[in-house]
Amino acid sequence: MLQVSLQQSRPTKLDVELRCEKGEVLALVGPSGAGKSTVLRCIAGLQSSQQGVILCKDQLWFDSKKGVHQSPQQRRVGMVFQSYALFPHLTVKDNIQLALDVDKKNHQQDVKQLLKQVHLGGLEHRYPHQLSGGQQQRVALARALARQPQVLLLDEPFSAVDKVTRRKLYLELNTLRRGLNMPIVLVTHDLDEAAMLADSMCVIHQGKTLQQGTPEQVLYRPDNVAVARQVDVRNLLSATLKDNNGQLQLSWNNYLFTVTSSSSFVAGQKVHWTLSPSKVLLHQRVRPSRGEHENPVTGVIQDMVTLRGITTVLIIVEQSNGDLLQMDLPEHVAMRNQLKVGETITVSLLSEAIHLMAD
Amino acid sequence: MDWQAFEVSIKLALLTSMSLLPIGLAIAYFLAKSKFSGRGTIEAVITLPLVLPPTVLGYFLLVGMDNNSFFGSLFVTLTGHSLAFSFVGLWFASIIYSLPFAVQPMLRSLEQIAPEIREAAWCSGLSKWKTFFKIELPLAWPGIITAMVLSFAHTLGEFGVVLMIGGNIAGETRTVSIAIYDSVLAFDHQQAQAMSLTLLVVALITISVVYTFNHYRSNTRVL
Q: A with B: how many residue pairs have Cβ under 8 Å apart?
């Protein structure tokens, strides 16, 4: 298990708390310059923060108070750099062999085995510049694994490859990680990538970790508005809570919504609320259902975009100050209901999917 | 042909370029790694011999090597010989004179190595010394070869500094360039021509070796 706690005021601000269990993939997400790579470099021992503690298993790698700062060589980390940082004057085999040779007792692994593990057999004698981006990434991964590291660190490892290769590499990494019994920290600014590969997700913004949880929690139930903005929730709105016969309801424009998760809030409190676009349900014209009584909202379609079978509908809500709602639905449903820009539609907002956040 | 002068010149050039390998590499490595504000000043001081008239540099070195100066008297105490007008003094002066020719190519090639390459080596478990010998040195090799060849060629053609520091002692400080100058003064144009042509060919060959080597590397490997 890896536990990281870092604080720093200069030169870049850091206030980081995160943990990653054995065999777990933790995605560190945030915009460029948020401090993701700095955190990764601190874990690797390539730089240190003014204060903090880094604990891996039972080994203390860094403790500012005790004056402990182990070098990258002592820490036994496997790191895949964004640029891969392969040694350009050495062949694939020598790149990996160099890391294998460090530990003379390491007889269990050999270059061929490692290359097989990353699906790169037969390219041992090539130089890095003779490899494609995806192949270079695989070599970097094999080299990182050669030392049998206690932690695997991946710094935006997919950013330098094309989309098709990236998809292939996602699947490969997903298969590979099942056989790796170590904490894996993945730095990325791609939320979809993080949601696809990670068991746990940590949002970092301006050097501060805002929330760590499962991708589901972070993406759909953010702790606060700052997290919601960082994970780019598509329906982020504000409203007030009202008491209705002892039950709290969400008062938004002229609508009054039933909500299920309001225990930590009080009547009269201003809140932000969010709802996944896939939890906005269309009232079908041809086949009305009982669910239509649940938080109905009427609006006019402003725009529609279809991507890979999912149609996103942008709705201007009636009786509001031009507030917009986004709804995702399968393309065939949009076609079946003959949705068109400018048409008025009614939708239901699933009460259990409405997530409230304090103002 | 003054073969003795050739022997002195080649011995001086070889010793200078060989001495500049560790000295230049140490300075270049230090400069490549450091980011302090005074780096520009240090680089300027090292590059100074490149722009300073050789006689000016020679004058300061002569003053520094005088038996009454700190270095000069120290050398006399240690060896019993005078530093000025000796081969060792000339060797020392040549190291200073050719320093920019050694440091600059080494520095440029060390700076071209991406910091992540070094860090990847550390993360792979390589010690700092191992990283230097197995990663940094092989990657900086073209710059090091260029530095060695350039300082050899530059020392071979040295004149002003040699005249100021070494004088004209046959077999000790008389180099080819001094011998050519002497021949011209003595109206021995045949000898001056022969030695000048030989020096020209040697200089051309060394520079061609550097260019061919660098061209070959850029064609065969992307670094």
A: 64
Mapping DSSP to helix (H, G, I), strand (E, B) and coil, where does residue B149 land? Answer: helix
Given strand A247-252, what is the order of strands in its sheet?
A255-258, A247-252, A236-244, A270-274, A355-358
- State the best of B116, B123, B221 to mutate against chain A, taking most chain A CBs within 10 Å: B123
Instruction: State if pTM tops 0.90.
Output: no
Q: Of A139-153, A225-239, B34-48, which gets the smallest average pLDDT?
A: B34-48
Q: Tokens 């004149």 correspond to what residue?
A: B159
**Cβ(A302)–Cβ(A235) under 8 Å?**
no
- How does pLDDT run across A268-287, given as a tens digit for each residue? 899 999 999 999 999 987 66
One DSSP character per residue, A140-178 reads HHHHHHHT--SEEEEESTTTTS-HHHHHHHHHHHHHHHH
Interatomic CA distance for residues A297 and A275, integer angstroms: 13
pLDDT at A292: 65
ipTM of the complex as predicted: 0.84
Of A74, A55, A80, residue with least CA distance to A3: A55
For A74, residues 6+ apart whose C-beta sits below 8 A from its C-beta are A45
CATH topology for B3-222 is MetI-like fold (1.10.3720)
Nearest 5°: phi and psi at A225?
-65, -35
Q: Which residue of A has its CA nearest to B136?
A: A87
Residue in chain A closest to B140 (alpha carbons) equals: A89
- Residue B114, chain A, CB below 8 Å: the answer is yes
Out of B120, B125, B221, the one facing A73 most closely (by C-beta) is B125
Q: How far apart are the first and last CA of chain A?
A: 35
Rounded distance between C-alpha atoms, residue B20 and residue B96, angstroms: 9
Residues in contact with A319: Cβ distance below 8 Å, sequence separation at least 6, in sequence order? A253, A254, A255, A298
Tokens of B203: 């200089």
Size (chain B), residues: 223
A272 touches chain B (CB under 8 A): no
Closest approach of chain B CAs to the CA of A107, in angstroms?
Answer: 16
In contact, A36 and A204? CB cutoff 8 Å:
yes
Residue A61 to residue A157: CA distance in whole angstroms: 24
Domain ranges of chain B: 3-222
* Segment A79-100, tens digit of pLDDT: 999 999 999 999 999 999 999 8
Mutate to test the interface with B, among A61, A89, A159 (most CBs of B within 10 A): A89
Nearest-5° Cα angle at A22, A177 to A34? 80
Question: What is the token pair recorded at A294?
Answer: 């649940």
Q: Chain B contacts of A81, Cβ < 8 Å?
A: 116, 119-120
Beta bridge partners of A270: A240
Q: Does B123 touch chain A (CB under 8 A)?
A: yes
Tokens 């003779």: give the residue. Answer: A130
Q: Minimal Cα–Cα distance from A14 to chain B, Å? A: 22
Contact B35/A at CB under 8 A: no
* Rounded Cα gap, residues B223 and B217, in angstroms: 9
Contacts with B123 from chain A: Cβ below 8 Å: 44, 46, 72, 77-79, 144
Nearest in space to A305 (alpha carbons), one of A274, A343, A280, A341:
A341
Report the residue of chain B nearest A82, measured CA to CA.
Answer: B116
